[in-house]
């Protein structure tokens, strides 16, 4: 008999009585003498039998609410102000990226005065209607005369797209590899994990450069594949670790005992229990992907040079860093803020997914 | 059999109360059978160990013969580490046996792989010890119950399977509306009801229940035992009930198999076993169970020492290192108890537990003389239970010499010296499985009329 | 809590002063949905040299009660009321000297006044505790001619951490269910026992941090007094080849040996009270038998009282002198062991016994208690067992059950028991 030591743990569901043994029919009348020796349990019956409670003592079903993952996340964000700030900023970033044409003050290719500092104004006929306008550049303009705020807003689009696609690629390949490795073990595990170790030993950016070199040519798809493949190892490692521990759980033995096949066990029994750390990891990988894309663009290996991306903006501003530092610094700040926001959100999610933490109050 | 339960229970299958005392199951058909079943685990999987041949094998289940008969409850009882849970999982092919055979209704199912095993999984189901751990925390009870039906093609549609799940919940004493709850929202006893419902979902013939009530409180435990009994009668189930708890065995089982260190040492109908035990281990196990009624308390047999390691189990009868009835050699001149004590000394020396250096350090620390003679005397005093004075003189001399040899660092010679005077057929020969009474088996030299060394009369 | 006039407490019929007297103990855990009353109100007494059983199912609060006795309730749990009086004249003298600011003198007259004011209070300790000023926890009831304390008690509940550390492992020690978790895996068994000895007994070995570190790195001197005592203790709990085994690490011990070592450690400072929380639950039945025999023998050898906490009725029946039955945070029945099992009175105890399978009489059908242990969050009804009780009346839900005498030294907290006049 192994009794848990959590003696004070509130038992769930006091009200739901098992129904396989209904209360017996009234088996006895009240006895007023009732000798002390009457020890047979349950023979004398009182006004209220087993499971019967006077109406005023009826309590609401005290079942502990099952909290869905979403509810957990909302609770965590309500408590953790930093994570909430991160989430708001991430949301802002996504909205701006998606609605760039409506949010941005100008078109991405419109040119104004060159290298205007922040909060300066360009005066001239920019829309070709023959009249002179005054345009305020809140974040200045770059060396081609593009409005920096506009470029950053359009750059957010590319960055977000690249980051999401990259993490998607890494997530799906890495997760599959990791599950297979962890579930089957043995030589399959050895082969997959040696590959992962091999990849892990290379800095991601160098691996990305190598992959782009092999595939040849620039473009969004190549960048996504390059960075995505370079990120496989992180996901593979994490889920393999999860699967290794879940594999020992009794509900997996139970799943095998009812005759489930390997695929069903892997994807229906294991993945839902392993997904939380992966989602956290994904939020932490998105800023890394943004950085990697910026890095590749900075090196001239990213998307086409005319596409507005944060990395290219920094890269372009490099040669004017002493004359017009804002061209590089402001996109750099944007990257920093987004990375920070995703990181704080990821930390918050980690807490939200930690069942042990949120259920023991 | 039907999950709807509209069929009347088959006649004559009313559980233990009707059948146990009359031993009706002696002639019943065998539904699940283990034949010389073995499951060894290699201790380490690392390449180095395999290359070096190191890392012994844990003989968790070592040559088990067992048959489960239709409609009966067979309890496998033993202490932790005796291999009873591994036996259960090997029967279900959850651990691939390393030797022997498992047969279901005569068909060999030993080591069948996933797809080939699947049809049998619908016939042989399992209930686990820890109800919460055996239920996937991210699935609702409905999902948990319908998954086995999907795997085995039971039910016509999703809605039909869900209806069946609701029926199952009511069948095990829960409410149908609980179908969308998660396992964590139930109490321990209710979780175990869900585990039982899952086992019933595929309408099996056989259920292997591994300590199904051990994690539950007494009052809840009784509810679950009652439920199992009702369901067994209703569905004509054969139940293999794995447990460490003899009190529970007495209440649920028709027959009992007692397991020790990977082997079955005795099988018998429940009432017969509680009446008389043919194996000393069964006897000791039963005597150790605490009892509420003062009148029921008998002399408690306190076993020597601890259960030996299943990596390197004792030679001969595996119980001989702890057995209170170990058989002295034919020429033993004192009583059996004296032999037991001297034999314990031998076992301790052989297992390398006796450490002259530690003894010397201690004597020094206490300011006692710590020359070789004093250390040898100290070893004899601490490692031999009781006093050497009532041992036969030849034995006494051998013990003293062995202690001297140990102090001199000559462990191998000490072991040989002890072996020369303290030998037992229990150590030298593996006991055969005999049938001392109808429908009973035991593996003990004392029960075997053909065994070597006649048991002395003093017990 | 009792609202009836105090009854003569049969528990103290022996005339000896109890070693431990627990009165009105209340321990709560705040949770999101309210407050869990893990121990609602518990009264308990243990006399010197007694083995007292505390039996209950999971959720009964028995382990929390034990932790409350040691001042070891884990946050956010808190002991919010009651008194845990440890009575011993040496102890009172020692603590009066060590904590002079915490001493309060209580006289018989004071106590009489308190009792007159609050009839609900039945024990001396509980009455005395109402007189304590802030920070006072050493109660002196009488002094000898020199003015030294002669009789009195220390209230563990009010004691500050410094005092608790002195008590724990010294005057009160504890044995847990899982010895592996309560031993340090990086220290040898002998060293762990020696450390306890050094902490609580003056063996002339430093317990300062540098000395500790040196022992940990270089290894303890094997000729020290503390080490010798450790080996003796291992021998006392019948670990064979104790001097060799003392050098082993906990993982090299089997489960039974670890529990023996744990008991050796707990007894090494000859405590007045040993609290054993499910000491044999993790062990096999043959090993359990050895450990229970051991505990009984050691109780006499070391003149220690034992509080044995378990869920196993049979263990209690075989081992204990007196038994307290606990349900959902309340003690519901107490009696000498033989009396309790021959003549159980509280409906819960009756149900518990009826649901326990026994090896001896298989013909007795086991009868489950229906339902589950209630959620202990803000229980709205008076008797916590009422909803599962086959005999409950409306009044059971409305009126707190008081203890009634139902046999020789035998009380049950049930309105439907006791003298016919009082019975519902």
From TrEMBL, chain A:
It is found in: Cell membrane. Keywords: Cell membrane, Membrane, Transmembrane, Transmembrane helix, Transport. One of its GO terms (cellular component) is plasma membrane. The chain crosses the membrane at residues 82-104, 158-184, 205-232, 278-303, 324-342. The keyword Cytoplasm does not apply. InterPro entries: BP-dependent_transpt_permease, MetI-like, MetI-like_sf, OppC_N. PANTHER family: D,D-DIPEPTIDE TRANSPORT SYSTEM PERMEASE PROTEIN DDPC-RELATED, OLIGOPEPTIDE TRANSPORT SYSTEM PERMEASE PROTEIN APPC. This is Peptide/nickel transport system permease protein/oligopeptide transport system permease protein. It comes from Halobaculum gomorrense. The lineage of its organism: Archaea, Methanobacteriati, Methanobacteriota, Stenosarchaea group, Halobacteria.
TrEMBL record, chain B:
SMART domains: AAA (SM00382). One of its GO terms (molecular function) is ATP hydrolysis activity. The keyword ATP-binding applies. Keywords: ATP-binding, Nucleotide-binding, Transport. GO terms for biological process: peptide transport; transmembrane transport. Residues 1-22, 422-459 are annotated as: Disordered. SUPFAM superfamilies: P-loop containing nucleoside triphosphate hydrolases. Residues 42-286 form the ABC transporter domain. Residues 437-449 have a biased composition (Basic and acidic residues). Pfam families: ABC_tran, oligo_HPY. Belongs to the ABC transporter superfamily. This is Peptide/nickel transport system ATP-binding protein. It comes from Halobaculum gomorrense.
TrEMBL record, chain C:
SUPFAM superfamilies: P-loop containing nucleoside triphosphate hydrolases. It is found in: Cell membrane. Residues 20-353 form the ABC transporter domain. SMART domains: AAA. This is Nickel import system ATP-binding protein NikD. Its main location: membrane. It comes from the Archaea. Keywords: ATP-binding, Cell membrane, Ion transport, Membrane, Nucleotide-binding, Translocase, Transport. GO terms for molecular function: ABC-type nickel transporter activity; ATP binding; ATP hydrolysis activity. Its EC number is 7.2.2.11. It comes from Halobaculum gomorrense.
